[in-house]
Amino acid sequence: xxxxxxxxxxxxxxxxxxxxxxxxxxxxxxxxxxxxxxxxxxxxxxxxxxxxxxxxxxxxxxxxxxxxxxxxxxxxxxxxxxxxxxxxxxxxxxxxxxxxxxxxxxxxxxxxxxxxxxxxxxxxxxxxxxxxxxxxxxxxxxxxxxxxxxxxxxxxxxxxxxxxxxxxxxxxxxxxxxxxxxxxxxxxxxxxxxxxxxxxxxxxxxxxxxxxxxxxxxxxxxxxxxxxxxxxxxxxxxxxxxxxxxxxxxxxxxxxxxxxxxxxxxxxxxxxxxxxxxxxxxxxxxxxxxxxxxxxxxxxxxxxxxxxxxxxxxxxxxxxxxxxxxxxxxxxxxxxxxxxxxxxxxxxxxxxxxxxxxxxxxxxxxxxxxxxxxxxxxxxxxxxxxxxxxxxxxxxxxxxxxxxxxxxxxxxxxxxxxxxxxxxxxxxxxxxxxxxxxxxxxxxxxxxxxxxxxxxxxxxxxxxxxxxxxxxxxxxxxxxxxxxxxxxxxxxxxxxxxxxxxxxxxxxxxxxxxxxxxxxxxxxxxxxxxxxxxxxxxxxxxxxxxxxxxxxxxxxxxxxxxxxxxxxxxxxxxxxxxxxxxxxxxxxxxxxxxxxxxxxxxxxxxxxxxxxxxxxxxxxxxxxxxxxxxxxxxxxxxxxxxxxxxxxxxxxxxxxxxxxxxxxxxxxxxxxxxxxxxxxxxxxxxxxxxxxxxxxxxxxxxxxxxxxxxxxxxxxxxxxxxxxxxxxxxxxxxxxxxxxxxxxxxxxxxxxxxxxxxxxxxxxxxxxxxxxxxxxxxxxxxxxxxxxxxxxxxxxxxxxxxx
Length: 803
Fold this sequence. Notes:
Blueprint: E1 12-18, E2 28-33, H1 36-47, E3 51-56, E4 73-84, E5 90-107, E6 112-118, H2 129-149, H3 155-162, H4 167-177, H5 182-190, H6 194-246, H7 253-266, H8 272-286, H9 293-306, H10 320-330, H11 335-350, E7 358-362, H12 369-380, E8 384-388, H13 396-399, H14 412-420, E9 426-430, H15 443-450, E10 459-460, E11 467-468, E12 474-479, H16 487-491, E13 494-497, H17 503-521, E14 529-531, H18 533-543, H19 550-570, E15 575-577, H20 582-586, E16 601-602, E17 604-611, E18 614-626, E19 631-634, H21 639-654, H22 665-668, E20 669-674, H23 688-700, E21 703-704, E22 708-710, E23 713-714, E24 720-721, H24 726-735, E25 740-744, H25 756-761, E26 763-767, H26 770-777, H27 788-792, H28 795-801
Parallel strand pairs: 1-3, 7-12, 7-13, 8-9, 9-12, 14-15, 17-22, 19-20, 22-25, 25-26
Antiparallel strand pairs: 1-6, 2-5, 3-4, 4-5, 5-6, 10-11, 16-21, 17-18, 18-20, 23-24
Helix pairs in contact: 2-6, 3-4, 4-6, 5-6, 7-8, 8-9, 10-11, 10-12, 17-18, 17-19, 21-23
């Protein structure tokens, strides 16, 4: 039978630099490969003749070794199996064949190769038979001593080594199975003859025996010292107990501590359950030593529980007028939020025992959700504390950890109550929509008890372990969206929506709040800087585009800093910013205004759209071409807008006669509908009236008024359905200089939310049907093949709908 090492071996083969690993000839083993080059080298070997040169590197932490970093002797091995693990690591099974010397080491972009020279696994022995026998017995004797100190060697391995018949068998049994340092294994590999290897093995076993014996002695000494210290501890505790009985306690520290805890518990008005629990913990503490670990845990627990505001209550302000002044001073607008808070005050004035108000402020970033909560606390004369919930994944963050764990602490709710210092604070739960869950639990589910007025009068934190009344707390939560909030959690909150600020609101906020704030931050006096009204409007229109006012505040801060620089550097007494010199300080305009044509045009209609940063004017263009009735929609339109286009075309076919449109246009003409700014996605049903107006204008060659903007969803029968975001859309139309705004009749009630400036400057037309829209938007002209009386027959009715 052919020997397994009698295989044809090329001089140049794949090479794997091993870390903390030495493979001997005749040895089979598993090891992991994780570096990209070594993985490729193993794959190359597997794809070729399955031979690889395994050579240990001197520094195990070196990621990309060179030849100088490698040992000179390694092992040629046969790769039997490579399996990829789920974490990307490859598990390899190899069988050592021949010892070899590294002649050259090649590094490529993706793998390693080596030029090797085979050397005998065991060179000719320089010792005679008697000397070899002496070495053999010395190894066995040293192994017997090694076994006495090594922990738990398997019986099978022990019998195998002692039953070795030849020096080679003895060496391989020891080298393959005994845990040795990889440097020792490398030295054993490099030793030429079996006698040299065994002599080196005697040295290694002797050293390991001495080290293990020393470790055992040190462990025994440490153990005896611990026992001695415990003995002293018990004796000292007995002495202390005897001294207490005799009244001879020298410092009385323990007794005073127990009395202090007892006094603090007695001074609080607590339920029987809480009092019994705390007194039980105090009794446990009295039986423990000062330095015991459990005593430290109990002290921390008692200090934490007694620091909670069990009885501390602040007196609510019941003066509604005073509270309204505070809210108006801190924030401009926000009528719904202010009304809700004032209603809460009025109810408390009538029924002071009312419990469990949980408000949820929902709106885009920067509209003042967090700051309005602070104003609410000030208006109510309550303490305020903020709890950030963004990124919370662990239920223990809400409920706390049990005190038996090392480093246990109460949850965020109890910690907030401790920081508030009163039983009835305003607690802001910020970013409640940013909570998530993982294998540690669902914090949203833990919040269900906190925000349930029927349950939170006995909230149990895992660390506190006793019920705490949260029913007097006014919880205010904030969120950017409600999509990620669990339905049961949302059901426990009263949702108040904060929409994006209009242009006028931003102007007043900047004028009344932000400029003063930034002047103070940048060390300026009101007499040193002046920001004109037109400059504020230009900042809002041309340098920021957002739902809130954060970027506007940053731009105002930038102007204040530039003013401070001129005052200090050039000695200027006062810096004035106007609309025409903003570009000098802030650079070119970042945002261009919505473009509205100043001329009536065919097929061009001004639509209105809502975005997360406010409303915009969305022009819609329709072009009629000779074709076969295709409808081309461009401008990154969504599925809902595409459906609106189909409805619009169908309706136009039904009223083609009224506007002199060829009945067969859907077979002979192609329609191209385009919404400019094609890179911006657009969707929603509110462009329906805009599409119908544009298609009828383009097919009938009728001009559309350029000073009219419109919004509304349509049906196949021509009814105009209500839309959302009227406040923002109308502000966009006002900014663009539109004089007439067409909105659905069903949105007439929403006019209360529209800014007063817009209502004064713009004419509103409330349309019940698409005919109402066309009567206003299309320009009457006898040259358009449409009778003037057709476009104006509903004029009296239109005026009735106009405000």
